[in-house]
Amino acid sequence: MRLDGKVVVITGVSSGMGRATAELFAAEGAKVIGMARRKEMLDTLKKDIEAKGGVFVPYQGDVSIEEQAEGVIDFAVAKFGKLDVAFFNAGLADGNYPIAEVTDELWKKIMGINLDGVFWGTRRAVQIMLDQGYGNIITTASVGGLHGGVAGTAYVTAKHAVIGMTKNIAYYYGRKGIRANAICPGGVRSEIVTKGVGFEHSSQYGNEMQKLGLDTSNGMGEPEDIANLALFLAGEDSKFVNGAALVIDGGWTAY
């Protein structure tokens, strides 16, 4: 098993990429601490993983609250004595609103989950990893962190920042035994897509512009596709991969 004995924190495990990654990491021998806001989803995931012989410890919390974003890291270390991998995956769509239509409320909501939560959790994880002398940070960015028209202003800005933060960590702490890499998915079949989570009040103009870009897509990926890339980054096969923003979009942005 590729993650045998490793202690891993994953945020945003309710569904989609986070859930698929938690299941895969547990199957590969990791002790997974999964964070999400919805208790019922955490309970279901715990039951499913443990039925297959895996280890999953739920942590109910909201990454947009500093104490909780940091708290899941301290909880993991208190329970298992170390932190090998921290995968900051929680995220929220922004409804495709271009800047002229972005309210302060929307901006703060998207930044709180997509950027602030990553910052708070990563900062605490790196502090722990510095004391250990090793560690591995993975962030979920997006092709929206590399291109301008994939989503609205708030989402694109947050994901660009996540990639910059990840690269900065890789540069500053690479010689301290800490790696940091960002995953940049394109379209993935998740709640955002299948249930329209985050798109309930989308800007008509934003959606029209985004559709122009989606017309060049080669289709949707599955959450398991992202989980497999996360597994590569979490394991020893990627030991010399550091500071990368890895695109996984089926060739969409090759257009």
Structural class: alpha/beta
Can you count the helices?
A: 8
- Remind me, CATH topology? Rossmann fold
Q: CA-to-CA gap between the ends? A: 37 Å
The CATH homologous superfamily name equals NAD(P)-binding Rossmann-like Domain
**DSSP strand (E) fraction?**
15-25%
Low-confidence stretches: none
Can you tell me the overall shape?
globular
CATH top level label: Alpha Beta
Commentary on this structure:
The longest helix has 29 residues, at 104-132. This protein has 255 residues and is α/β, with parallel strands linked by helices. β4 (85-88), α4 (104-132) and β5 form a beta-alpha-beta unit. It has a single domain (7-248), classed as Rossmann fold. The protein has eight helices and seven strands. The protein is globular and about 50 Å long. Strands 3-2-1-4-5-6-7 form a seven-stranded parallel β-sheet, with helices on both faces.
Summarize, please:
By secondary structure, the chain is of the alpha/beta class.
Jot down its keywords.
Sc_DH/Rdtase_CS; NAD; alpha/beta; SDR family oxidoreductase; 46% helix; 7 strands; 255 residues; seven-stranded parallel beta sheet; SDR_fam; steroid metabolism; Rossmann fold
